[in-house]
């Protein structure tokens, strides 16, 4: 059955191999679903109507694979992508699973670990480029601490800067044309992770040798874990020209990293997010970094993946409805009503004119802003009665 909520390639919906391939292991229980090979995952993604597939190096090629095995795996994966019309928009590197990274990768105190992490990342960049990826995500899951006795955090920042600068040069030297997207998370798996929020990375990027090559990959769950408004983080990244990628999922504040189906925990926040992305014309991938409940078999995993995309498209339609609603538009016009510019550009004249101006504070504060009505109309759209 196809309807207006059926995903199409132009929606640019992507999933990581690790998302639909997630086997449901958690700290308290083992895997509940059998392993799917990368080729089987590509087939599943095509069946549910996705556009793209992303991977960490070791989602595709096991860490101990021989060069021959690597080449065979890449060949079969590329063939599967071609057969099913699935593209590879993004690649990333696993710098968290292997015990060598137990105290971080780029920020480790051990120079050999830092060098190995860089080598592994260059190889992951080679792999991604071979399959057409133009975005390279860096998530520093182990770049953090349990005890701050281990190193000074400003030292960790310098080490990460050296690594990202090196990787930018490598991309330029190889002609890969990558855009790097840095992904923040406040904690888990470490007690604290450096660069806990998207805003922290936005400040860091400006200190790099090639800031134009580096942006962010904000994730719904991660800002929500920190108790923040995700859409505001996305808006700051967008305004700075740094929204290179996005990880969509859902999360209740104050919990472990839940990675729920997009829109399933807080549909209102998801609505504002989708409305923002669509209003500004974000044209990058809409990547679902989430996984199915542990209760599901692979039919349930398909329900999960279809649900992520369908909810996005439903919210997109709700956003169009919101933008076209005459009562909402009338309220917005009223809210914006002013007489003229606020203050213009600074000059001696504009400054002294502003210093001389009289304001009627009581009058300015007396008008109700009708946000209750505006929000209720929003709720009625979301709840399907408007
Ligand atoms: C997480 C992260 C990861 C990253 C992925 C890409 O909390 O586990 O979101 O899923 O997005 O490793 O680097
Ligand atoms: Mn996550
Ligand atoms: Mn993520």
UniProtKB/TrEMBL annotation:
PANTHER family: PTHR48408, XYLOSE ISOMERASE. One of its GO terms (cellular component) is cytoplasm. It is found in: Cytoplasm. InterPro entries: Xyl_isomerase-like_sf (IPR036237), Xyl_isomerase-like_TIM-brl (IPR013022), XylA_actinobac (IPR013453), Xylose_isomerase (IPR001998). Binds 2 magnesium ions per subunit. The active site is at residues 56, 59. Mg(2+) 1 binds at residues 183, 219, 247, 289. Its cofactor is Mg(2+). Mg(2+) 2 binds at residues 219, 222. This is Xylose isomerase. GO terms for biological process: D-xylose metabolic process. Its EC number is 5.3.1.5. PROSITE patterns: XYLOSE_ISOMERASE. Pfam families: AP_endonuc_2. The gene is xylA. Belongs to the xylose isomerase family.
């Amino acid at each position: 059955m196809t309807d207006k909520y059926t995903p199409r390639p132009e929606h640019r919906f992507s999933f990581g191999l690790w998302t639909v391939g997630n086997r449901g292991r958690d700290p308290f229980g083992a895997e509940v679903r059998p392993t799917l090979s990368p080729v089987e995952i590509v087939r599943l993604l095509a069946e549910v109507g996705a556009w793209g597939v992303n991977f960490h190096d070791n989602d595709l090629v096991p860490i101990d694979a021989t060069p021959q095995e690597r080449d065979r795996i890449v060949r079969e994966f590329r063939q599967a992508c071609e057969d099913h019309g699935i593209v590879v928009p993004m690649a990333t590197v696993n710098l968290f699973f292997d015990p060598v990274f137990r105290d971080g990768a780029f920020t480790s105190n051990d120079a050999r670990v830092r060098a190995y992490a860089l080598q592994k990342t260059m190889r992951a960049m080679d792999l991604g480029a071979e399959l057409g990826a133009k975005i390279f995500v860096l998530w520093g899951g182990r770049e953090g601490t349990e005890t701050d006795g281990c190193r000074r955090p400003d030292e960790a920042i310098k080490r990460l800067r050296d690594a990202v600068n090196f990787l930018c040069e490598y991309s330029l030297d190889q002609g890969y044309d990558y855009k790097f997207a840095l992904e923040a998370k406040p904690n888990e798996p470490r007690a604290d992770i450096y660069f806990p929020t998207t805003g922290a990375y936005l400040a860091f990027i400006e200190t790099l040798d090639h800031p134009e090559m580096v942006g962010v990959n904000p994730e719904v769950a991660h800002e929500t874990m920190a108790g923040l408004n995700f859409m505001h983080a996305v808006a700051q990244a967008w305004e700075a020209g740094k929204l290179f990628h996005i990880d969509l999922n859902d999360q209740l504040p104050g919990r472990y990293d839940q990675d729920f189906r997009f829109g399933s925990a807080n549909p209102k926040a998801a609505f504002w997010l989708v409305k923002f992305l669509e209003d500004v014309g974000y044209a990058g991938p809409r990547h679902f970094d989430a996984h199915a409940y542990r209760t599901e078999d692979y039919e349930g995993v398909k329900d999960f993946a279809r649900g992520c995309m369908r909810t996005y498209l439903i919210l997109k339609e709700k956003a169009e409805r919101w933008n076209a609603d005459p009562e909402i538009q009338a309220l917005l016009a009223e809210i914006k009503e002013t007489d003229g510019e606020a203050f213009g550009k600074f000059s001696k004249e504009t400054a002294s004119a502003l210093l001389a101006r009289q304001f009627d504070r009581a009058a300015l504060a007396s008008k109700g802003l009708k946000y209750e009505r505006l929000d209720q109309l929003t709720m009625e759209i979301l709840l399907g009665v408007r």
